[in-house]
Amino acid sequence: MFTNNERLKETVHHLLENKYSVDLIEIQVTNGELVFNGKGYIFQDNFGQLKLKLFSDVSYDQDERLEFMFGGVVRNPEGEKVSEYYKLLAKDENLETYKAEHLTRISILDNITIYSIRSPLKCSRTLERNTRVVFSGNYSLPINKYAGVKTTLVESFNYSENMEVWEVRVDEGLTLVFSKFEGYLDLMIIPSDEYQIDEDLINMISYSLNFVLGLETEVVYINLLEKGHTVFNRRNLLLAKSTFSPPLIANHHYGIEFTTNHTTLFKAYLSYLRKNSQNNLPIIHKRIVSGSRNYIFAAALLLSVQIENICKDYYVNFYIPDDDFYIQLESAIKLLESSGVGHDKIIGNLKSKRLSKSRNGIGVANVLNNLASTRVISKKFIISWKLLRNLTAHGDEIKRGWEDFLASYYDCTNLYYQLIFNLIGYVGKYSYKDYANGNSLEHYPIVLPLIEEQSIGNI
Fold first, then answer.
1. Which of 105-114, 142-151, 310-319 has the lowest mean pLDDT?
2. Helices (H), 73-123
3. Which of 49-58, 75-84, 125-134, 228-237 is least confident?
4. How many folded domains does the chain comprise?
5. Which domain-ending residue is among 258, 275, 292?
6. Is residue 1 included in any domain, yes or no?
7. Do 30 and 101 belong together in one domain?
8. What pLDDT is stored for residue 396 in this prediction?
9. Average pLDDT over all residues of the chain
């Protein structure tokens, strides 16, 4: 699917190999009243971090160098301390501009200064006539090899190796085509003439891909049609493998229907983000995936806590206070307060459970029970969530063994996905995780077994 633009190919491969560099004939680095001019170049270090080497028109005196070496202090002409962050504005030999909002000074030697570029590097030049995003790493995509899937686009469209493409027609005005290459994933965004593509939409597309693949992808390059291209620092996210299971496994043996489920899920998640831009679902997913790179105990803690956050942020209407419980609670508080014996800690804990309209006053178990009664989630996952939450938060001993612990972790993974499916309105198959029996394809909304159907009212 990739373009024949050799400049673009070279740029992407250099980024992936940490060999990206740009010669600059005019550089201006500013920090408030501080202005440094000169020439130099941008380069990547061995870890893929962008750096700027500036050969300034003026040299630093010895006092400035020593102060920076021992204190890292930045001062204005009046000798006052100022922010450590600089801004970059530069031009290459083609007079294309390069900008970065956050630079920090690393070293000083006479008139040579090296800066670390902490923010994305934006260039005014567009390297091709397409809006394109490149993700670093090797990914499994929902591509049905055996069906010979092609895009619905024109015949002259250039496919990737082995015609491995995943097309998502978001709506009549927007088509996304993902392609696999060795070491990276390529996304071409194809809008209609009246469709506006901006960085916010690209971020939402990236978040949706993260959710469907159960990963945290790493964007290294964006070419925005008629607006220039952006280069990102490498974060090397995929060096530590995520163990979190995706909602759908990208297995090629399931055929067209399975690929359709991925597309439907992707579109549902993206649609929800576009309608509800002020939400933290992508952040919650990122925390869970990041946690899965750690020891399983830490991963379980993060997963259980994020399920709690979802209930408090998105399902507050399912919290139904138990009046009898709160009557008994107040009686217990009064009894302990009148006893005259030091029960301050117990009384404090009881008071924290008082009915409150605040976020902290929402009982998560109460919310989950009511969600189960309306078939949003499976009832059996509630016990697993309680077990995981209490064990990991309070450091309790795992008395029931690691098998039960891992089974609860799998249950909570299913619970997390069911909560999200309901929010975004997804209807279709998903990969049900079962520690004892392995994965299976199940349908959402859930269809309850007869025994659970009969007992649902006894929650």
1. 142-151
2. none
3. 75-84
4. 3
5. 275
6. no
7. yes
8. 65
9. 82
CA dist 133 and 223 (Å) reads 7
Q: How far apart are CA 134 and CA 305, in angstroms?
A: 32
CB 408 within 8 A of CB 384: yes
How far CA 92 is from CA of 24, 29, 49, 123, 233, in Å, comes to 4, 15, 20, 10, 20
Q: Would you say residue 408 lies in a domain?
A: yes
For the stretch 354-411, pLDDT in tens is 655 456 667 888 899 999 999 999 999 999 999 898 888 776 666 667 888 899 999 9
Same domain assignment for residues 216 and 301 = no
* Angle ∠(400,402,404) on CA atoms, nearest 5: 60
pLDDT tens digits along 76-123: 556 666 677 899 999 999 999 999 999 998 888 878 889 999 999 999
The alpha-helical segments, DSSP class H, found in 256-399 are 256-275, 281-291, 296-314, 323-338, 344-351, 364-373, 380-394
DSSP H or E segment with residue 416: helix 402-424
Give CA–CA dist 133/106, Å, rounded. Answer: 30
Beta strands at 112-117 and 165-171: parallel, antiparallel or unpaired: unpaired
Helix (H) or strand (E) holding 167: strand 165-171
Asked if residue 380 and residue 410 are part of one domain, the reply reads yes
Instruction: Calculate the dihedral angle through the C-alpha atoms of 307, 313, 318, 320, rounding to the nearest 10 degrees.
Output: 100
H/E stretch holding 170: strand 165-171
Give the domain extent around 238: 131-275
Q: Identify the domain boundary among 239, 255, 275.
A: 275
Q: Which residues touch 251 (CB under 8 Å, ≥6 apart)?
A: 258
Nearest to 312 by CA among 352, 362, 366, 356: 362
Q: In whole angstroms, what is the distance from residue 187 CA to residue 224 CA?
A: 12
C-alpha angle 414-179-207 in degrees, rounded to nearest 5: 40
In terms of Cβ atoms closer than 10 Å to its own Cβ (0-12, 13-18, 19+), residue 198 is: exposed
